[in-house]
# Entry
Amino acid sequence: MKFRGYTELSKQEALKALDWMPRERDKGFMAGRMVGGAVNRTYTRVDGDRFQISRTAGMGSAVCSGRVSEANGVAVIDLLVTFGLVSAGFWLLLAMGLFFGATAYYVYGDLYMAVVALGLSVTSLIWYWFARWDARYLMSAVSERLGGVEWTRVSS
# Structure
């Protein structure tokens, strides 16, 4: 999903504000995941006019990548929200398919498989909800850091 936001800050001020967000730390593979899973914090990389923000050091369910440009003296932030290898919509479609499968198993009398499919459907819905929540959290963290940016969705 692509979003665009405008702020009253200049390009340099916006990049400096983003650069002051919490950074990645520690060298262990699971360090970012453990800390990110325990608290709501962001991990930020700023390189030139581009930045990347995630909740668990790049290993979370959502990652926001962006670019800061300037138009008429104000910063323009283009934000791309990605969900890793599997998009959030996949989890929703999988949950619906598993739910219909559970219904079919129940109708045909296989209660055990109906319960298993229903459990997998609920698990898929939880993954979908978590990915969407993660993306909203990251977008609000960027917005807060830049002084209340209002995001508008832009087409691909």
